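ok trying this again, last paste got cut off
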Amino acid sequence: MHFENTRTSRLEVSPSMAVSMKANALRAQGREVMDLSLGEPDFNTPGNVVEAAIHAMKDGMTHYTGPSGLMPLREAIVAKFRRENGLDYTPAQVAIGIGAKQILFNLFMGVLSPGDEVIIPAPFWVSYRDMVTFNGGSAVILDCGIEQAFKLTPERLAAALNPKTRWVMLNTPSNPSGIVYSRDELRALGDVLKGYPDVGIISDEIYEHILFPGATFCSFPGACPDLMDRTLVINGVSKAYAMTGWRLGYAVGPENLIKVLNKLESQTVTCPSSISQVAAAEALNGTQAFITEALTAYAGRRDVVIRGLARIDGLRTLVPQGAFYVFPHCGAYLGRTTPDGRVIATDVDLAQYLLTDGGVAVVPGAAFGLSPYLRLSFATSATVLEKAVAAMETSLRKLSQDQNA
């Protein structure tokens, strides 16, 4: 019996998770593997957040909540946007989900009709395109390579917009490139979108709090308040507060759109975990000291990776302004030959070679819609990062430029 339909048969396993699973398989064989594939902080969740969850369980907060979530969490989210972004929302404009990923999936499931186009600048987070196509939309990919500093320009956006366009997808700070759009850059994109009143904007801001010196974060509706009534801002607690396993994301936007998301929530998962909701409220309302401590660590780790990559001829790298990824261009290594005679034809081949030869797990740029690149996550210890970059350098030096060597 065949159990897949045409939509699921086209769907791929998350590439970053696939690489991580391969790394785990090699570990099971006794190999040392340095995993730079997953975007998951290696820190534990802050103690005050854990304690809030424990108290919630002891106090009986172990039942269903409404699809829209607990009011204290919705109020905490409203307060966060007012305090940190200067934006005024109401609790009725808040959606809560099992991670930001679920909210995005529900969004596309709820708003896309066949033929609707979603503009997605590449490189993009691995799931954007599949979510759009799975839910009947058409993903319009705009390549924004290292020469464009990985950023969508107003000119490229204007050229891509047409009557079929329904949404534009933005991500700042970016996974995988680490770029951060400035207020002026966002405003310039917004000026283009003013002429297209039927186009919505999705601004994925999950890495908002992971910024490095010299970078300033601006939420899209903060830069373009006149587009607030057609902008959905995606955020969550996973990255900023090391709460990946708690599975709690949130979004703010127009109330009629939030109603669509909450309707889908009620018919799919009913509600997010009540315990995770309490924990998230504490993360947002409580001390923010963890963010500062983690950011100091990430900045040091970023510097370790950038220094290491600078030693490797053939990799071109932009220093990330935010998030915990670096996305070097690796085109100089395509066409080279491995010691056992295999030609490196793509960045997928190169990532596979680095894993098998050097024990370094990275994700190929193809997974993010742009080749030839590699994504390295520096959400792990400086010690692991130093070993990983050194191992990459050793493996890459083994590649021959003569395919007959």
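PB: full thing came through this time. The longest helix spans residues 289-310.
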